[in-house]
Write a structure and sequence with these properties.
With 190 residues, the chain is an alpha+beta fold. The chain has two domains: 118 residues, 2-Layer Sandwich (Beta-Lactamase), CATH 3.30.450; 54 residues, no CATH class. 25% of the residues lie in helices and 26% in strands. The model has no long low-confidence stretch (mean pLDDT 87). Bound molecules: zinc ion (ZN). The site of zinc ion (ZN) has 7 residues, from helix 7. The site of zinc ion has 7 residues, from helix 7.
Length: 190
């Protein structure tokens, strides 16, 4: 099983029952590093962190609930599956996350498979320049949606796609959730 996960093309991680990262496969590390992970560079340093602590704050409640809902291996025909966006500056990407809860509350195995990969549709998301005057809020922070990574305009008139800030997160970025993602991910309002 471990051998299969090691060479699995999808990014895979395993969690202990308390949510601490027990395992990540090479594809996961590669993806994390390609996508701007800089604070935790090498594989061993990922291990031992709580998964929910290494993802953006606004996402934590959502993923916590997701894991709680995952049926135990063998108790359902399909694992719990959740499709999410994780785009790069030039590619629109969606991943399907499959959460396998291990028997006897033994933890989780999570497989993230790329399901959509295409250039961004510029009619849907017109790329904007990284103009701090347009986006920096009163306190100087740039607010990025933790789910879709759009950036909120300082005048609060909407959210924009700013590819340069996907490539390199600007100093003083904080995370929130845009209205569209709020409705999609938190339909119950919590
Ligand atoms: Zn969003």
């Amino acid at each position: 099983m471990l051998e299969q996960l090691e060479s699995h093309p999808a990014s895979v991680f395993g969690l202990f029952p308390d949510g601490v990262l027990a395992y990540v496969n090479p594809a996961w590390v590669e993806f994390a590093l390609e996508n701007g992970a800089t604070t935790l560079e090498a594989t061993p340093s990922w291990i031992g962190h709580r998964y929910l602590d290494v993802i953006a704050t606004p996402l934590r409640a959502f993923y916590e609930k997701l894991f709680e809902r995952a049926p135990e291996v063998g108790s359902a025909l399909q694992p719990l599956s959740h499709v999410y966006e994780c785009s790069s500056a030039d590619t629109y990407r969606q991943f399907a996350m499959k959460v396998y809860a291990l028997a006897n509350s033994g933890g989780f195995v999570v497989i993230n498979t790329l399901v959509t990969s295409r250039p961004h549709d510029t009619t849907q998301r017109e790329p904007k320049l990284p103009d701090r005057a347009r986006y920096a809020l009163a306190d100087g922070l740039i607010l990025q949606c933790a789910h879709c990574r759009l950036v909120r305009r300082a005048d609060n008139s909407g959210w924009d796609w700013v590819p340069a800030w996907i490539e390199q997160m600007p100093p003083g970025t904080s995370h929130g959730v845009c209205e569209v993602c709020l409705e999609y991910y938190y339909p119950d309002g919590d």
